[in-house]
Design brief:
Elements lengths: L32 E6 L8 E6 L2 E4 H6 L8 H7 L5 H6 L1 H15 L13 H11 L1 E3 L3 E4 L7 E4 L3 H11 L15 E3 L5 E3 L4 E2 L2 E4 L8 E4 L3 E2 L2 E7 L18 E8 L2 E2 H7 L7 H4 L2 E3 L4 E2 H4 L3 E2 L18 E2 L2 E7 L1 H5 L5 E7 L7 H8 L11 E3 L14 H4 L7 E2 L5 E2 L7 E8 L7 E11 L3
């Protein structure tokens, strides 16, 4: 099959009408990936899909209908897999080739008569239309098999806000502005958005108590983060130079690093986060390709002091608007909408994804396809931009007052936390990151 569009431009509209609806955020220029099961299908087989308008383009069905025959066999086989890992292993040229072909198949061509039964473009359109599933009839799964998960501390505003709570005279530790700090998380408890989160038990010490206790956490929190999905890794012992770092990135997703603050503060010294973090991490079902985000780049925030040479960054940040919303049980029972708790932007990060990759691999650590590097909590410099309750409520000292009369210092059972994200620029389509949701269940 030959390409239907030959120009290099990514401009244009789709013949899928809902893709041109700016309120949906799934335009032709985005084409994010997901793993899903069609709820109307006879079996429950997971397929890879691409979001377009209000539909998911089923890559398994598209490949088996012959619409991808112009692509190499390895890419076609990867499109038949249930998760992204085989496609990630194919590398950047393959990612670009598949994205280009999907764009061409979905772009509206007003010069072609789609009613002509002998028209190749019309035949392609019918194949594609037959491979679409309405999003409302899809159950989403984790889009990638994650072997390793690293959580960074890349927001200097978050680090400063947290530091002020525990070290008012010296909020930033001496190493913060020199090294991208992170810890190795737990990949086995990483779940897809919508999975309910069980309140964890743990050991913590109440104020004034002579000994610690073991009980359900009293300080359950969320952390607004963005996950970078590693596409191709590096051999053990071979660092990735910062100039090549972003070529190893496949795409970005929303991520919620659930945190039990009372457990975390008791156990964190001297080795850092452990059981206060490892009980659950929620990942959005959508992976937005890095290629789709190129038009939404923005200059990096300046570093002072300048980083060491191996971290000297020359690329750019991503103008990604983020929002946290909260819905309580009582709010849902009263049919009240979720309340917005904060808004921030990914471009406020102190450390970029390229710097995270370069530092992570600087000692020869090998990344593998599907690894997740998370930003840590994304907070801004102004009130209303804090990415977790620990910051918003000042460690529980200043409760949030909700419109229905409820208050919150930390999360209560039945609370649902919703993350949203989008990229927008004048003259460009809005690209949504979808949602990352989780509802708190009581401890057992």
């Amino acid at each position: 099959m030959t390409s239907l569009v030959t120009e290099d431009s990514w401009e244009g509209k789709s013949w899928v009408e809902s893709a041109n609806d700016a309120t949906l955020g799934f335009p032709l220029q985005s084409l994010p990936y997901c793993s899903f099961v069609s709820t109307s299908a006879l079996d429950a087989t997971a397929h890879l899909g691409v979001g377009i308008g209000s539909f998911i383009l089923d890559l398994y069905e598209l490949a088996h209908a012959g619409a991808l025959n112009s692509l190499p066999a390895a890419i076609r086989a990867a499109c038949s897999a249930p998760q992204l890992n085989p496609l990630l292993r194919c590398g950047p040229p393959a990612w670009s080739a598949l994205r280009r072909l999907l764009f061409d198949l979905l772009k509206d061509d007003p010069t072609s008569d789609q009613r002509d039964e002998g028209n190749a473009a019309a035949d392609h359109r019918r194949i594609v239309a037959a491979s679409m599933v309405p999003m409302v009839r899809a159950r989403f799964l984790r889009p990638v098999a994650v072997a390793n998960y690293t959580d960074f501390y890349a927001s200097i505003h978050h680090a400063t806000n947290i530091g002020k709570l525990f070290r008012p005279d010296a909020p930033l530790l001496p190493n913060y502005q020199w090294v991208p700090i992170g810890y190795h998380g737990r990949a086995s408890s990483l779940v897809v958005s919508g999975t309910e989160i069980r309140r964890p038990h743990g050991q913590f010490k109440l104020p004034g108590a002579p000994t610690p206790t073991f009980a359900p956490t009293l300080q359950l929190d969320y952390e607004l983060e963005v996950a970078a999905i590693i596409g191709t890794g590096n051999p053990l012992g071979t660092p990735i130079p910062i100039s090549e770092a972003e070529s190893h990135l496949f795409g970005l997703s929303l991520l919620n690093d659930w945190s039990a603050r009372d457990i975390q503060v008791w156990e964190a010294q001297p080795l850092g986060p452990f059981l206060g973090k490892s009980f659950a991490t929620s990942l959005s079902p959508w992976v937005i390709p890095m290629d789709a985000l190129r038009p939404y780049r923005t200059p990096l925030a300046p570093h002072d002091p300048a980083p060491l040479p191996y971290l000297a960054e020359t690329s750019s940040a991503i103008d990604l608007s983020l929002e946290v919303l909260l819905s309580t049980t009582r709010m849902r029972e009263a049919s009240l909408p979720p309340i917005s708790l904060s808004k921030s932007n990914l471009s406020d990060l102190h450390w970029s994804f390229a710097q995270m990759i370069a530092h992570h691999t600087s000692n020869g650590c090998n990344l593998v396809e599907g690894d997740i590097l998370a930003t840590g909590t994304v907070s801004g410099a102004i009130p209303g931009s804090q990415g977790c309750l620990l910051e918003i409520t000042q460690r529980g000292q200043h409760p949030i007052h909700l419109p229905n009369g409820e208050t919150r210092t930390f999360l209560e059972d039945g609370d649902e936390v919703i993350f949203r994200g989008h990229c927008a620029r004048p003259g460009l389509p809005t690209i949504t990151f979808g949602e990352c949701r989780g509802t708190i269940l009581p401890a057992i």
